[in-house]
Protein 1
Amino acid sequence: MTIGLTHYLVLATAVFLTGLSGVLVRRNSLIVLMSIELMLCAGNIVFAAFSRWLGDASGHVFVLMSFAVAAAEAAIGLAILVEIHRLRRSVNLDDLKTLTE
Amino acid sequence: MPAVADASLTAQFGALLPYLVVAGGGVLLLLADALSRASRRDHLYLLTVAVLLGALAAQLFGPAPERTALLRGMLGGEAYTQYFNLLFLGIALLTATFATSVFERAARYRTDFYPLLVFATLGMMILAAATDLLTLFLGLETMSLAVYVLVGGQRGSLRASEAGLKYLLLGAFASAFLLFGMGLVYGWAGGTGYADIADGLRGAGGNLLLLRAGLGLMLVAFAFKIAIVPFHMWTPDVYDGAASFVTGYMATGVKAAAFAALLRFCQLALPELGGFWWPLLAVLAVVTMIVANLVALAQDGIKRMLAWSSVAHAGYLMLGVLALLATGRQGLAATVGPASGGAVLFYLVAYSLMNLGAFGVITLLGPDRGEEADRISGYAGLARRQPLVAASLAVCLLSLAGIPPTAGFMAKFYVFGAVVKAGLVPLAIWGVVASLISVYYYLRVIVVMYMQPAGESIHDGRSWETAFATGLLALLILFLGVWPGGLQRLAEVTFRTLAG
């Protein structure tokens, strides 16, 4: 059996759904951030797979760009998390109720 | 392999200059911020104003906008781009002005505000001009990443950090949907350009499942950015927790940029196939208008109220987009299409003016009063203390409610008119009902300002720049309410340049 486009798409969907369930279920904001990175990663797999399948390089370029974006997003997320942890000693999403009170 | 020089790049320089000025200015501001002493940073404001004015001038006096693609089809250089670039630069100028009056009084806000503002504006300009999925993604992220920090970047404020984290998590969540959806669309179309998608649709019978799935996921991301129900949950908290001038910037700039990108995507990539999004969007738009207006009735805080109001306005704007999509389906595209697109463009300008004015006044009165500042009851007696500021706020709120003779009334008139012309009378009726509900909560603030005696919590924030700017915005709103024809024609002509 050769590994084809379908396998990559199934893998990407599985990774995306794993990340999605992580975002919806976990309450630790660090884990949520990691789950979002998984979802972004799934998008990259789709692009890379199609890029190879189509023989078109623009998908690979897209993946490189989205790496940079994901890294920047993680950096900003961690910076804000550090600030929140300093002020509240917790990164649990259920503790973040200052705005809704 | 030696790269072949793109001969047309020199010719594109003039059209790209506004982007280069803003990007270079942002880097310059970062450097200036790092090199200057913490105590003396007022010159950063002047530098920001210089950068933004320079970009405005480059956009206004640059080469006449043509329907040529820039950077090999990455950005569109037509009048549509120019229209939105001028809007974004104007919004950024006003936001910088509001912010500087706050910085004079409260130093905790001052964390790299100006460079981030400039980079966010660059992201908006790219987003509105994008004609390729890649530039759409990068523009959206450039804007969003900068705005996450603008929201969360008040040192020592738990409210702001919390708002920033919520916005970042949900925004990044939406970006992941966008990226995955784009991947599927790319695989279906075989290229990332909007033109590739349009070509694919023209040639295709075949299997549209991949495209449908991709477009559905992309729609989720768009819905998050423009905050329509059910993807609006972040809006009240984030608008409430961010500094008022940042909220004003988000409510106007971010929303206008997302709508500009959505309109362009619908027009260029999906000329005949609004049908994918149409039924879902129609339901979402109606639910958005009704729910947001009903929840806004119950708000005590003025920023939360305006947050819900901005969700409701996203619903009205969506009606305009729906009219555009519907005309594509019914073959009315040549006649009604530009009218509905133009109505959305007019609405975005009017909406930006009135929201900036309202948030300008909130900024002016806000920062010293702490968290209680946002209570609507805190505005009691404002009309006697500061009649001009109160009058400006009253004009902005009347305009948001859509009462003549204001820009907000004309904007709603054009959008609902386009919706009726497109044959969607029930949608227009829902829109009118929703805006009738909204009159109550806007008028409540005006009643409090004019009819109730001043309480103890009143604070007289004074800043001549902000007061002047909000007064000017109020005059502009009235001007557009009385003589809307000029801008309306401009908006329609501008939208025509987009029609593929």
Protein 2
Amino acid sequence: MPMLTEFGKIFIFLLTAILFVVVAVVAAKLIRPSRPTREKLLTYECGENTEGTPWVKFNIRFYVVALIFLIFDVEVVLLIPWAMVYQSFGFSGYIVGVIFLLLLGLGMAYEWRKGDLEWERPKIVPPVLAEKMNLEKPDQLTPKEISI
Amino acid sequence: MIYDFLLKLTGSEIAAGFIQSLLPLFVFILPFALIAVLLERKVSAHMQDRLGPMRVGYHGIFQTVADILKLMQKEDIVTDNSDKALFNIAPVLVFTGSYAAFAAIPFSGAFIGSNIDLGLFFIVAVSGLVVAGILMAGWASNNKYTLLGAMRSAAQVISYEIPTILVIITIVMITGTLNLYTLSELQTGHFWNWMIFGGPSTGLIKVAFIPFMIIGFVIIYISTLAEVNRTPFDIPEAESELVSGYHTEYSGMKFAMFFLAEYANMFAVSAIVAAVFFGGYQSPFGYLGNSLGISWFIPIEQFFWFTFKGIFFVLVQMWLRWTLPRLRVDQLMALCWKYLIPIAFVNLLIVGLITVL
């Protein structure tokens, strides 16, 4: 007899969920009417005629959020094994985690300072060093508007 | 365990696994969705001094049944401009993602779909499927409202996943387990053994944990609320601006699947919050079965407590929905990245310090 592992049970759960949706949609297809007309098959836009395509260039903020999320998510995945075992290493185990988290915090502070956490960035933050060394006047940097 | 019973009954592991994977769906989620949809309409109505549905049955108790009958007969429209393959796959992905979470949630001491050691981690990971499904639905509909809704929803769900995981790590640091079954068993006994009251630890450490546990609970509750796109974090589905977000173009049974997934998700996050902080299926005070000496009664009591806690948190979600106004998108992101995540970080470090001292 084959042994069903715990992950095998999860696989069956996934199959059940897929089957349920497919069966429900197919069963409804047998009952429901299907009388498409041209108006029904138009894209919904509050009664107006559809203007252009929605598949356009999108706000860059979403990309930045996804990027920051990716970094955090990977670090969090690394943190979970640490959280399981650090107590057996005592105080030094804790310090290792703190150093890791501080590095993460440093990156986050940088993003915050650069304004990547703001949804709308009104102007570019000039580098502090350049300001001090008078390399470039902050007002000479042209602020770029980001359109939504 | 119910699985062992089914195994004896059917004699086949695959059949037993299949039957047990149907149990949460038909015994729990469908009845829950029936009740919760009606409850939501009734709660909202009474909060606004209205009556809500009154016509179907006594005080409208059969309203949802009528709605389902109606949804089954509705024409299923797939617009000409949509990407048809992705449009049809999206509801499957969204429902699978939210249903798979139930595989690792213990419903009572006698029933857990799959007793994996990675429980919480699995739930967090598999909820990523929902994001993919939502993006797929929004993109494939080829509609400006759906695409906007899907992008907002994806950005929101992934952002709020981080505070959730950070709080979960805090719990893992104390208990040393990701298995929700073990976690619930740890919190057995009385309500002062729940994680929110410091968990099974004793003495001064237990008292020291309490404030940080409460902070952790507030963070995880807010962020799970945002993960299921409920008000005040419902900008992905903001009815007044985006029609209804990513499922604007869906109708008939596919829309019903999105709706069901949404309610399943609502319960799933409530159950996770309950399991992590409020003892899961454990009773706040001893069991009747123990004092009467009927051991088979205990799992039924546990199931009752699990449902009670889950529905309580769902009710709080509804309460918040009709109390708070919707957040703006920049406020939403600021709340997550500038408040919840730093607070969760500091909370994690302090809890870690307490455990090693």
